[in-house]
Design goal:
This protein has about 280 residues and is an alpha/beta fold. The chain has helices at about 1-10, 20-25, 25-40, 50-65, 80-85, 100-110, 145-160, 175-180, 240-245; strands at about 70-75, 90-95, 115-120, 130-135, 160-170, 185, 200-210, 215-220, 225-235, 250-255, 270-275. The chain starts with a helix and ends with a strand. Bound molecules: S-adenosylmethionine (SAM). S-adenosylmethionine binds near residues 37, 74, 76 and 122.
C-alpha cells in the first residue's frame, strides 16, 4: 500500500507519457468532454460561442475564407469548422474523438452545411493536402512533447499550399506563472467525471520550471484496476514559439496578444505562421 501510494505521487519525467487519446476517446470521458465542449458556462474544452464567433470573424477578415480550402485540426464537435463552411470555405475537420465527429456531422446535417469530417489522429494519420489555411485552436500544440510538435508542424507544413497559413494559439508564460503545484485525493473526484463506476482519484500537479511545462496527473483507482491521465502543458513566449516554428520551416507573420480579441487575458496568444519559401 505504501509503495503504491508513493508511486501515485512520483514526479514523472517531463513528457514521458502521452495519454491525450485516453482523455478524449475513452467512451465515458469522450461523453464528458463533448458535454464540456458544448457547455457555454465552462471554457474548459472550447471557448464560448460568442468568442468563437469573434475568432472566426477575425479569420474571415484576415484570410477571406470564402472559397478557401481549410483544415481544422482537433475540430472537436465542429464549432469552428461549421462556421468556416457557412462562410463559403471548403472545410475538412479532423479529430480522433469519434464521439465529437458524430456530433459535428449531425450538426452539419441539421444546419444543411457541407463539411468533410474525419476521425483521425493528426500525429499519425495523413492530413489533407493543398490547404490555404490550417487551424489548431485552443492551445492544442501545448500538450505535445517537443518531438510530437516537430512531427505535427512538419505535417502541417506539407499540407499547406506554398502561400498557405497556419493559425493557432498557445498557452503563455503568464499562464505558467499562475500554475501552482497541489495534491488532492477524493472519492468520485469531480463528481463522477472520470468513471461511471465508483472510484477514488488522486490529482497531483507539477511544475517543470526549466522546461516551462506543467503536468496535471490523475490516478484513477477503480475496482477493475488503476489507470492514469497525464495532461501536459508547454507554455510559450513569442520568442520561444518563433524559434520552434523557424526550426520546422515556418516564418511567424503575426503574434496576436489575445487570440480572442475581446477577451484579452494574456494566458494565451495567437500565432499566424507561413511556410518558409
Ligand atoms: C481542447 S479541444 C479543442 C477543440 C476545438 N479546436 C475547439 O476549440 O472547439 C482539443 C480537441 O483536439 C482533439 N485532439 C487532441 N489530440 C488529437 C490528436 N492527436 N489527433 C486528433 N485530434 C486530437 C480532441 O479530441 C479535442 O476534440
Amino acid at each position: 500500500m505504501y509503495n503504491q501510494l508513493k508511486n501515485f505521487h512520483n514526479r514523472p519525467e517531463v513528457f514521458s507519457v502521452y495519454t491525450a487519446d485516453v482523455l478524449w476517446t475513452q467512451p465515458h470521458l469522450a461523453d464528458q468532454m463533448l458535454e464540456t465542449h458544448l457547455d457555454q458556462d465552462t471554457p474548459l474544452a472550447s471557448r464560448p460561442y460568442t468568442a468563437i464567433d469573434r475568432v472566426v470573424a477575425w479569420l474571415d477578415e484576415t484570410f477571406q475564407i470564402n472559397g478557401k480550402a481549410i483544415c481544422d485540426l482537433g475540430c472537436g464537435p465542429g464549432l469552428y469548422a461549421e462556421r468556416y463552411a457557412q462562410l463559403g470555405a471548403s472545410v475538412c475537420g479532423l479529430d480522433f474523438s469519434a464521439n465529437s465527429i458524430a456530433h459535428a456531422k449531425a450538426s452539419a446535417r441539421a444546419n444543411d452545411v457541407s463539411v468533410t469530417y474525419k476521425v483521425a489522429n493528426y500525429l499519425t494519420d495523413p492530413l489533407p493536402q493543398g490547404q490555404d489555411l490550417i487551424t489548431l485552436i485552443y492551445c492544442d500544440l501545448c500538450p505535445l512533447s517537443p518531438s510530437q510538435r516537430q512531427t505535427l508542424l512538419g505535417k502541417i507544413r506539407n499540407s499547406l499550399k506554398p502561400d498557405g497559413a497556419f493559425v493557432f494559439d498557445v498557452a503563455s508564460a503568464k499562464a505558467f506563472k499562475f500554475f501552482i503545484e497541489h495534491s488532492t485525493f477524493k472519492r468520485n473526484y469531480m463528481e463522477g467525471f472520470w468513471s461511471s463506476n465508483d472510484y477514488f482519484a488522486f490529482n497531483n500537479t507539477y511544475r517543470y520550471d526549466d522546461e516551462n511545462v506543467s503536468l496535471d496527473h490523475f490516478t484513477i483507482v477503480e475496482e477493475k484496476g488503476i489507470w492514469n491521465v497525464y495532461n501536459w502543458m508547454q507554455y510559450f513566449t513569442p520568442v520561444s514559439i518563433e524559434a520552434e516554428l523557424n526550426e520546422c520551416g515556418f516564418n511567424v507573420i503575426d503574434i496576436l496578444s489575445g487570440f480572442d480579441v475581446d477577451a484579452v487575458d494574456e494566458t494565451s496568444f495567437g500565432v499566424v505562421a507561413k511556410p518558409i519559401k
